[in-house]
Write a structure and sequence with these properties.
alpha+beta; 2 domains; three-stranded antiparallel β-sheet; 3 strands; flat
Length: 144
């Protein structure tokens, strides 16, 4: 009897989960931020953040660029086409300053940051969320 009751409840539970997830998908899609909202809406973490230096936050859609053929000597290899993307710029600080924090008198820690994100559906891109391009790009600098 117990087993029979569980067998009847399992399809009902699965159906409720599927119905609930279908209701969430349209709401999540509608909630995608536009590129410029990263610089104007505190809900996305940068605007109004005390670690973001006032007046340094901006976001803009950078238009697509066509491919360029090789043109020696300045451009010995071809440059592939670049799709449009969202570029977010800001200056970060923790407030460290002066000799006690390892800086010169009057110096304040400030780190300029630029983030390039693929366009989301909200901006006319084909990515369902910012940063969903399937790859991670890192830049490194040789010690020295």
């Amino acid at each position: 009897m117990k087993e029979e009751a569980m067998q009847r409840q399992t399809p009902l539970a699965l159906a409720l989960v599927l119905l609930g997830s279908m209701a969430v998908v349209p709401a999540a899609r509608a909630a995608l931020p536009t590129c410029t909202q990263f610089a104007t809406n505190a809900a996305y973490g940068l605007f109004g953040n005390p670690s973001t230096v006032p007046g340094t936050l901006n976001a803009a859609i950078i238009p697509a660029a066509a491919a360029l053929p090789p043109a020696p000597p300045g451009r010995p290899t071809a440059t592939p086409a670049t799709p449009a993307y969202c570029q977010v710029n800001f200056t970060y600080t923790t407030g460290l300053s002066g000799p006690a924090d390892g800086y010169d008198v009057g110096q304040v820690q400030m780190i300029k940051i630029r983030i390039s994100l693929p366009l989301s559906l909200a901006d006319g891109g084909n990515s369902r969320r910012h940063g969903a391009n399937g790859s991670l790009h890192r830049s490194s600098r040789a010690p020295g």
